[in-house]
Design a protein that fits this description.
single chain, about 700 residues, alpha/beta, TIM Barrel, Rossmann fold, 3 domains, six-stranded mixed β-sheet, globular
């Protein structure tokens, strides 16, 4: 089954439909057309970090945590697992006559928006702030999710969202016009979408906001000029949920629901998540849309269902329910959690020896929280291991005190309960050999704006600090003078205030999935070694970053930020040390369009085995327009035993050397480029934090 065959088969069916029947097939909850043998199908399913909102599933670390692993192979295995579990569940749903929301095979994932501002609550759903990292991981995820069998049928379908220029504020998303330059549009906001189109992603979801004055789901510039004409996209386009209603209710570019539906359909939005397309018959009768336009959209959608094998027998039909959250998938989940956690600080406290610690105080609102393991858009796992439970497993002979210590946020009704909790935390800390403070947020505090499609309150952060009760608790714990390990569970950068200086060790756990507590315990006791790196810049609360509503990239992300942050993009510590040497480049000058091959030796110079994320950055020295101070252009993971070394090599092609000019065009200019290989960015601040220098050289494009 190929795309052309599916389209021809779909078109033959569509030609037999009435106009009214066609309009029903453009709704996310498409009803059956029994006379044509078309069963009901609900397009809305989620698979961000596991099959979501449909009961049992492997709950992987949230997407931002998966990004911190810098591991394309891992993302591929996660994508494959989601497809397998999604297919297994689908097989059982239809056997039992169920075709409801969250039961289909069209997963509206991944979210490849750029996490440009640390306040954005949905940044946790992304792969971070860098377009190259986002593109690379997104491609691996989609290609695995959309595996084909020997007859060309997809196991599942992915969807690149939210297209485009979308990253908050959540409270304004239904009415906001994201003002952006063509340079920032094509340099930062669009590369991941272009990459996923090139990878064959079957779906694209426009965002809620306007871009250049037009709501994305009704923008011919985004959907026709760029997506179809420039990139050659031939998959389906779905609106975000109830976004088309925003055309007349909030953006005020139309006056009626029928006009909004017509604008979206004519622009190229095939499917409506929401109810605006219930007005398509009115739009048709008013002459706002044509039968041909309806038929074209239904053909695209029906062809996707055909390519998924939903009308035929495929080998995917034999995937049994038993694969759901099975031992093999749980093992992968453990690996993902261990790779994702980032060691931000360690004065020598870690790794801990369980035989030498008799009493531990485990405090904080995230100490025993299942919610903080999950993040948002999640399923429900067979088993969960919280931070507290993981510590109990790892320290079976220790006396463990566990108290909440603080509320997540300041309660609406003030009282002495917060003070009581903090004092109790002080009491148990004073009796402990070690204090583990599990702090952070959850999806009720940071996440998606609450609306018809989202049950949580969520929203954006108004500060980079933890909520005040947690900051007060940290102050109390620091004052005890006891060894302090802070575990921060959150989907974004957090400034821990006094704990940045006074805590002995800090681990950023993200929302680490069902086995997050076990992975954390293995890491802090040295049974596993830290290897995660930050996929976003961790700013200080006092850093000067632009207003949240400002979509210009100046002074945003590591590529353009002008100050020293709290912790830089690409940063993460290990229990061992790595050193780079013997940089080589295959030639000093190339013609435009040629590649260069670079290599270096990376050595584990420490006493324990470890895994290093090798990062490659390129800098355009002689650009005629604004370019990043440097940008990530390659990465890989290398596993090295203590004392072992390995040669790593990368082919750096044209795309790494191209700049984006003021018109948004890709340009390869002649000039000198610097290129670096190391365990982080090639800047003095990263080197100061890690104690590891990059190696590199120059070449010229003639």
């Amino acid at each position: 089954m190929n795309r052309q065959e599916a389209r021809q088969r779909a078109r033959a069916i569509v030609e037999q439909m009435t106009v009214e029947e066609m309009t029903t097939q453009l709704l996310f909850n498409s009803p059956p057309i029994e006379r044509l043998g078309i069963p009901a199908y609900n397009w809305w399913n989620e698979g961000l970090h596991g099959v979501a909102r449909a009961g049992l599933a492997t709950v992987f670390p949230q997407a931002i945590g998966l990004a911190a692993a810098f591991d394309t192979e891992l993302l591929s295995e996660v994508g494959s697992t989601i497809a397998e579990e999604g297919r297994a569940k689908y097989n059982e749903w239809i056997k039992n006559g169920l075709r409801n929301i969250y039961q289909g095979l069209t997963f509206w994932s991944p979210n490849v928006n750029i996490f440009r501002d640390p306040h954005w609550g949905r940044g946790q759903e992304t792969y971070g702030e860098d377009p190259f990292l986002t593109s690379t991981l997104g491609r691996a995820f989609v290609e695995a999710l959309q595996e084909k069998d020997e007859n060309g049928y997809y196991k599942a379908a992915g969807c690149a969202k939210h297209y485009a220029v979308h990253s908050g504020p959540e409270s304004l998303r239904h009415e906001f016009d994201a003002v952006v330059s063509k340079q920032d549009l094509f340099e930062t906001y669009l590369p991941a979408f272009e990459c996923l189109v090139g990878a064959g992603v079957l779906g694209v979801m426009p965002c809620y906001n306007r871009v250049f004055g037009m709501p994305a789901a009704g923008s011919t510039y985004l959907l026709q000029d760029i997506l179809h004409d420039k990139w050659g996209y031939d998959g389906y386009v779905t609106s975000d949920c109830w976004a088309i209603n925003d055309f007349h209710l909030h953006h005020h570019v139309t006056d009626t629901p029928a006009e909004s539906a017509a604008m979206a359909l004519n622009a190229g939005t095939h499917l409506n998540c929401g109810n605006a397309y219930l007005h398509l018959m009115t739009a048709y009768n008013d002459g706002l849309i044509t039968r041909d336009t309806l038929a074209d959209s239904v053909t695209v959608l029906l062809a996707v269902r055909i390519e998924l094998g939903l009308f035929d027998k495929t080998k995917w039909d034999d995937i049994p329910y038993e694969v759901v959250d099975c031992p093999a998938h749980q093992a992968l989940n453990m690996r993902a959690a261990e790779e994702s956690m980032v060691l931000l600080k360690n004065d020598g406290l870690l790794p801990l020896d369980p035989a030498k610690i008799q009493t531990i105080a485990v405090v904080g609102p995230n100490a025993d929280s299942q919610l903080a393991l999950e993040g948002n858009y999640n399923g429900r796992a067979n088993e969960y291991v919280t931070i507290l439970e993981g510590v109990r497993e790892a320290f079976p002979n220790a006396r463990i005190f566990s108290v909440e210590g603080s509320a997540y946020v300041t309660p609406k009704k003030r009282g002495d309960f917060q003070e009581f909790r903090a004092i109790e935390a002080k009491i148990v800390a004073e009796r402990a050999d070690l204090v583990i403070a599990a702090m952070g947020l959850n999806c009720y505090i940071e996440g998606e704006e609450g609306d018809q499609g989202n049950a949580f309150s969520g929203g954006d952060k108004n500060s980079l600090y933890l909520p005040q009760p947690q900051m007060d608790l940290l102050n109390v714990l620091v004052e005890t003078g006891k060894p302090l390990l802070v575990a921060c569970l959150a989907g974004s950068s957090i400034d821990l205030g006094i704990a940045n200086e006074k805590a002995n060790a800090i681990v950023h756990c993200w929302y680490p999935g069902a086995f997050g507590g076990r992975a954390f315990a293995r890491l802090i006791t040295g049974k596993a070694n830290f290897s995660g790196k930050l996929p976003v810049t961790f700013y200080k609360q006092t850093n000067t970053i632009p207003e949240f509503v400002d979509y210009a990239m100046d002074n945003r992300t590591y590529k353009f930020f002008k100050e020293d942050p709290l912790y830089p993009f690409g940063y993460g510590l290990s229990y061992t040390k790595f050193a780079y040497s013997d940089f080589a480049i295959d030639r000093d000058a190339i013609s435009a369009g040629e590649s260069v091959r670079i290599s270096a030796t990376v050595a584990n110079t420490g006493a324990v085995d470890g895994e290093e994320v090798v990062e490659v950055y390129i800098r355009d020295v002689e650009a005629s327009t604004r370019v990043p101070r440097h940008k990530l252009c390659a990465f890989t993971r290398v596993k090295l035993a203590a004392g072992e070394s390995s040669r790593v090599a990368f082919d750096i092609g044209r795309s790494a050397m191209e700049l984006i000019d003021e018109n948004g065009d890709k340009v390869l200019e002649p000039g000198v480029f610097e290129i670096y290989i190391g365990g982080g960015q090639p800047d003095a601040y990263t080197q100061q934090l890690t104690g590891c220098a990059c190696v590199g050289g120059k070449f010229e494009v003639k």
